Amino acid sequence: MSLKSVPSTKEIRYDRQLRLWGDDGQDRLERAHVCLLNASALGTEVLKSLVLPGVGAFTIYDGENVHGRDVGNNFFLSHDSIGKPRAQVACELLKELNPEVKGNFVVESPNHLLDNNISALDSFSVVIGTNLIERTARQISEYLWPRKIPFIHARCYGLIGYVRICVEEHTVVDLHPDNPTPDLRMDKPFPALAEIVKMTDLNAMTYQEHSHTPYLLILLKGLEKWRTKKGDPTALPSSYQERKEFKELLFSMRKPDDKGAVDEENFKEAADALVRTMHRTGVPSSVKQLIADAKCTNLTADSTDFWLLVSALAEYVDEADALPLAGVLPDMTSDSARYSKLSSAFHEQAAADAKRVYDLVQKRLTSLKLPASRISLKDAANFCKNAANLRLVRGTPLSDELAGTASAIQGELESYDATWSGPSMEAPVPVIAPAVWYVLLRAADRFATEKSRYPGTNGVPCHLDNHDLTLRVRALFDDWHAPHFVEKIRDEAVDEICRYGAGEPHPIAALLGGIVAQETIKLITHQYLPVDNTFVYD
Predict the structure, then answer these.
(1) What is the rounded CA–CA span in Å between residue 303 and residue 301?
(2) 388-437, pLDDT tens digit by residue?
(3) Helix or strand run (H / E) with residue 162
(4) How is residue 518 annotated by DSSP?
(5) Is the Cα dihedral 337, 339, 345, 347 positive or negative?
(6) Helices and strands in the chain, H and E counts
(7) Burial (Cβ within 10 Å: 0-12, 13-18, ≥19) of residue 426
(8) Which of 331, 388, 436, 472 ranks highest by number of CB atoms within 10 Å?
């Protein structure tokens, strides 16, 4: 066994996740430093799902000591830790999960941090606040927003969960689409591919060679015949009827075996791949929007690597009238020699395209007097490989949401039928829209701000708090100039919020912790599309 074939300790430990976000994503994760505000059950579950995959470091800010109620729902606090700082105990146990991760803690409440040392948040990759009251979350968001540090406001409230992502601008360099369209350049093969097609003579092949010809070559040879028949050297079968005719042409090109049977798997693959592969090479609308963005056309020394690369990509598109070749060849029935030759041709062309983009971005670095080492050829190659799936996400600040009229929530409530439904009248099932839970969580925050406790706590009967919480729901709708929506908030839903008593059942905290960690990893790695603004779990 060669040394190259022996997996490293890191590859063994992180094998599964490397298949999800690759070496580049793992490198970004290991360079990240995440801040957690409040080591609640939800908070420790978030960190658990970040420590296990190898986040570089984490720091916990929490001013509470461990109480008996914490031990009941937080697996990272033990009975013998009661009375000790919650941040310290949680940090020590979380570090045991992965010795490669650095863990830190500060015995300081988020409110004290806000008042005395908020600049400490400047050094973090992502800040996560769990079960913060509305006022505190708003102040943290307002501080982090102009500094372009992502903030995730998350809470577990009984059987309800809430996650809000606050980020001014987030760029996605690898979307990982579920059904990616292969970049095969069927309409205009690059020179090396065109030469392979030219040297392919299906009629001169044995049955063994014929039945192991990659479907890409079959499609391109079939396209030559179809264009000759149509009298149009640029035509592609696009309509249903044209694709039907093209499939008939493909099947007419099959070769019988020595028993006269005509059943070649590679031709079936070619017919099945027709819709996915036979399309004109172009620039997706989402990428065109990036190219036209002011941050692409007006570069400065403060521009991020993403925008520097997009600017170089824009010049490349002007030159080539296409995106750089992705260089990824799908699996297909083939002998190893021809598949290897095709794969090498794609890789070499993709490398040449990436080198051109790299040269263009280096020109921009020079003109802006930035170091040439800032963007490597590997960075450019990874960017070009995923150029068709680049995305830009621009969020909204939490302060705008909390001070506004919640038009999106009102739109959800407008179409919500506040009725009960179920399999029978004896066993009704509550149907409560996520927008209702959102409103009630906002009202519960008002309740807590004004009474210094949440509904259903401190031994107060739920029916009394139900009345007070309903008053705050009405006040919230009055602020939104939409008092008629009060009828959408049923008493049964208000009762549920009071019954929860702001509790954190561990199963709900664990589920939400996984979701928040997943969104954090998306923000750190710049891979996959994050949640759109707000997520409510019921």
Answers:
(1) 6
(2) 999 999 998 888 888 877 778 888 888 887 765 555 555 555 678 899 99
(3) strand 160-166
(4) H
(5) negative
(6) 24, 11
(7) exposed
(8) 436
